């Protein structure tokens, strides 16, 4: 359901820009598919030893269970680590992170970060819900890690359906998956679980991501 040829062309241009190039298998270096520590031991354990470059991780749970807080804590750990990381083919002492918030304003996010003691010049915050603008910001900032909070707030302007619908969630997640694989950016996507225990519909995201983390509390 496209709204016009202009929107189609805009979306298609972004897809072509993010498209990965083919390489002979003999030239592929498996050492590039590395894991890097998030700075939180228990999270690294459930991720299989750390976050993987170019992976798409879904962080699901009921609203208010602490998903955003956990993501900010990860930002703090990644930005303060002293271990040299090989991310996106470059050696860095700290990771550059772009936190996209569609749930809270920059001021609200700043207040939360202050309460958690999160302070870093390598943590960038963007309050945006249009996926096209998010991708443009990623192209400008070139982060190592992208955090989207939350997938239900994102929308593609080429679709008529509202943000949070199954069509929008599926389309936006597909674009983020292509971004992760094509650019080698580690992407964390927050998804809210509804009363039936599903994320934005009947298991629409689980098969599209590399890892699903569910957060639950005591009833």
Side by side, the strands of the main sheet go 7-6-8-9-3-10
What distance lies between the first and last C-alpha atoms, to the nearest angstrom?
Answer: 41 Å
Fraction of helical residues: 25-40%
Query: Unreliable stretches, pLDDT < 50, 5 or more residues?
Result: 1-13
Helical segment tally?
A: 6
- Biggest sheet, open or closed, and with what strands and sense? 6 strands, parallel
Secondary-structure element series: HEHEEHEEEHEHEHEE
Structural class: alpha/beta
Instruction: Let me know the number of strands.
Output: 10
What is the radius of gyration?
A: 17 Å
Shape label: globular
Average of per-residue pLDDT values: 82
**Percent range for β-strand residues:** 15-25%
Describe the structure.
- The chain has 6 helices and 10 strands, in the order H-E-H-E-E-H-E-E-E-H-E-H-E-H-E-E.
- The protein is α/β, with parallel strands linked by helices and 219 residues long.
- The radius of gyration is 17 Å and the shape is globular.
- The chain starts with a helix and ends with a strand.
- Mean pLDDT is 82; it is low at 1-13.
């Amino acid at each position: 359901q496209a709204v016009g040829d202009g929107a189609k062309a805009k979306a298609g241009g972004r897809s072509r820009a993010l498209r990965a190039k083919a390489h002979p298998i003999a030239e592929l270096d498996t050492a590039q598919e590395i894991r890097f520590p998030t700075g939180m031991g228990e999270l690294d354990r459930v991720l299989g030893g750390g976050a993987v470059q170019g992976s798409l991780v879904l962080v699901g749970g009921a609203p208010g269970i602490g998903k955003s807080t956990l993501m900010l804590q990860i930002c703090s750990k990644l930005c303060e680590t002293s271990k040299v990381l090989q991310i996106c083919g470059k050696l860095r002492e700290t990771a550059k992170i772009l936190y996209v918030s569609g749930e809270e304003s920059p001021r609200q996010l700043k207040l939360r970060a202050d309460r958690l003691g999160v302070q870093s010049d390598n943590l960038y915050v963007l309050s945006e819900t249009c996926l096209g603008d998010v991708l443009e910001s990623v192209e400008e900032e070139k982060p190592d890690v992208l955090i989207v909070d939350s997938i239900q707030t994102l929308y593609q302007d080429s679709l008529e359906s509202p943000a949070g619908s199954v069509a929008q969630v599926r389309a936006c997640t597909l674009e983020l998956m292509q971004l992760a694989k094509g650019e080698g950016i580690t992407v964390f996507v927050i998804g809210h679980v509804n009363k039936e225990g599903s994320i934005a519909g009947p298991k629409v995201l689980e098969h599209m991501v590399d890892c699903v983390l569910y957060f639950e509390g005591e009833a």
